[in-house]
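Hi Y.,

Following your request, here is the sequence exactly as I used it, all 411 residues.
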Amino acid sequence: MKFSCATSFLLVASAAAFAPSSISSRPATAIFGDPNQNPFGNQPSIQWGGNDSDPNAKTIRLRERLNEADTERRKAEEEALQRERAAEIRREERMRKIAYMQQMPDNQPAGTVEEFMFKEGVQDQLDKLDRELVGLLPVKKRVKEIAALLVLDKMRRKLGFETSVPSLHMCFTGAPGTGKTTVAVRMGQILAKMGYSRQGHVVLATRDDLVGQYVGHTAPKTKEMIKKAMGGVLLVDEAYYLYNAANDRDYGQESIEILLNVMETQQDDLVVALAGYKDRMDKFFSYIPGMMSRIGNHIDFPNYSAEELVQIASVMAGQLEYDIDNNAYNTFYHYIQKRMELPYFSNARTVRNAMDRARMNSAIRTFDRFAIRGENGGVCTVQDLKSITSEDFQVLLDDILYADADKRIFA
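Below is the corresponding structure, written out as C-alpha cells. Let me know if you'd prefer a different format.
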C-alpha cells in the first residue's frame, strides 16, 4: 500500500489527537532529550574558550611557541659556551703546567721526606704503631710502604706533577688477635693526616650489621653502615660470611654488590678493609673475583711467637700500671707455650684474657692477706696493689697441667 505525503501528515496528526493529554502536554525535550545537554553529567566540558577563527588568538599561540623555542635555544647555547669555556680553562692550566715543568730545573727542591713525614703527623702514627704492636715486622713494613707512597705523592703534587689517588682498599688476613683492627685504626689516622680521608675513623662491621633477614632489609642496613664509615675506613670482619655458596638466594650477595659499587665509585671518600682467615678469604675471593680486583693492598698478619706474647703481656701490664715480677715472666712463658697447643688460641687476645685472670688472682691474694688474715694490721702498700707475682700466673698454668680436659679454663 502506498501513501502520499499528504496522507502521511494526516495519519501523524490523527495519532496526536488521540494521544493521552499527559503525553501531549510534555515538551519535546522531555521525550527526545535536549540535544545541547552535556552527556557526561552536570560538570562543564573542557572546551577551547577562544575562537579558532580569530586571527589574533592564533598569533598569540604562535608567539608563545616561538618564545619557548627561543628560550630553549638560548639555554643550549649558554651550556655549550660554558662547556667550551671550561675546556679552554683546562687547556690553559695544562699549558701553564707544561711550561712550568719544562722550565723547572731537575734539582728544584721539593722539601725533605722527613719534613713531610713529621709535618703531616705520619711519623707520629708510625711510631705509635711500633710502640703499640709487638712484632709483626712484615705488617709494619707494608704500612710504611703505603705511607711512603702517600707522602711522595703529596710531594709530587706540590711540584705540579700529575697524580691520582691510589687504590687504598685493603685485605687483612691472619688469625684472631694478631692486630688487624689496631692496624686498621692506625691506617685510618694516617690517611686522615695525609688528606686522603676526611675523618680517619674506623667502623667495624660483621655480617649481622650488613645483611638483613628478609627481602628489602639488606640494602638499607648495608647503606647505613657505609654512611657511618664515609670519610674513614669500613672494616668488615670475617668478610667471607657475606657469601653463602650453598644458598643462591642468600641476602649476602646483595650486600656484596652494594660494597663493590661503593668501592668503585666512592674510593675517594671511603676505604674498605676486609679481614679474616687467609684460607677462607682466598676461597671468598674465588667466588667474588670483582672484590679481589678492587683491593690493592693485601697484608698477611703472622702469628706471634711465645717470646713476643710475653712482651705483649709486659706492655699490657705497663698500660694498666701493674708491675710483673721477674720470676713471673718465666711462669707466664711456660703458660703461653702450653696454651698455644690447646684450642681457641687467639694470640694477643689470649694474652689479654690471661692478664685479666692474673689481675684477678693478684686481687684475691692481696684481699686474703690483708682483709682475711689481717696481715700488717690490714694495711697494704702501693706495691702490693701493683704487683703481679709468679703465683698469680701459676694458677693459669695449673689449669692446663692438672685440670681435667673438660674442666680447663681457656683463658
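The longest strand covers residues 271-276.

Thanks again,
Q.
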